[in-house]
Amino acid sequence: MATTECKTKENSCAEILSKSPVFSSEVVNNIKEHDQVGIPLQTPWTFWLDKAISGTTTEEYKANLKKIYTISTVQSFWAVFNHIPNANEMQIRYSYHLMRDDRYPLWEEPINQKGGTWRFKCHKSDTATVWKEVILAAIGEQFSDSLAEGDEICGVSVSIRDRDDLVQVWNVNASLAMKASIVEKVHSLVPEITFLAEFYKPHQSHHAYNRHR
N or C end: fewer C-beta atoms under 10 angstroms in the chain? Predict the structure, then answer.
């Protein structure tokens, strides 16, 4: 079980976000208790936080990532989710990632590099709703029936931008994306939402892929 990096003032997410997800020892103990007795997830999932900084290398990006917590039950998910700022409270250029197991939200990682993301551009007023529904679907394995055989959802991200925001659903095999119906599934999760754009992008097609290390 990973422990939060938001324990001390010097290493607090208060320095990063408008509202701080500082976890007191009481909250951490509560999360741990939920992980021991709660309804187990199929796999653990890890919350990450990062800030987009142009020109960073892969290793610099990885070093700047903040691991919030790794959860393994439904109850510990809510214990963490309810103690960090909502997506609509985050500052511009920050992102949350919820990744399967403890994998890094990094294109170049060997476990991720053959995959890609379905990308949904959201009106800012819709971001928090889309993020919540999509991560609940991810941890509940609700995307399984919308994937091609042999593929898997490995993460979900929300990125806060100047004009609109971006929610992404990560998969492990970009070559199978055309056989999936993830876009339709997301629409069924948030039928009242109209996205500004929606498309799939393989990690290896990004101009920043293979950043100088």
Answer: C
E-only strand ranges, 31-152: 40-51, 66-73, 94-100, 116-122
Q: What predicted TM-score, i.e. pTM, was given to this entire model?
A: 0.85
Q: Is the dihedral of CA 75, 5, 112, 122 positive or negative?
A: positive
What's the CA gap between 61 and 197, in Å, rounded?
27
- As to burial, measured by CB atoms within 10 angstroms (0-12 exposed, 13-18 middle, 19+ buried), residue 7 is middle
With H, G, I as helix, E, B as strand and everything else as coil, classify residue 35.
Answer: helix
CA–CA separation, 61 vs 44, rounded Å?
Answer: 23
Q: pLDDT band at 19, cuts 50/70/90?
A: very low
Mean pLDDT of 150-155: 98
Higher model confidence: residue 168 or residue 30? Answer: 168
Q: Are 168 and 157 in contact (CB under 8 A)?
A: yes
- Using DSSP, state whether 111 is helix, strand or coil: coil
pLDDT tier for residue 128 given thresholds of 50, 70 and 90:
very high
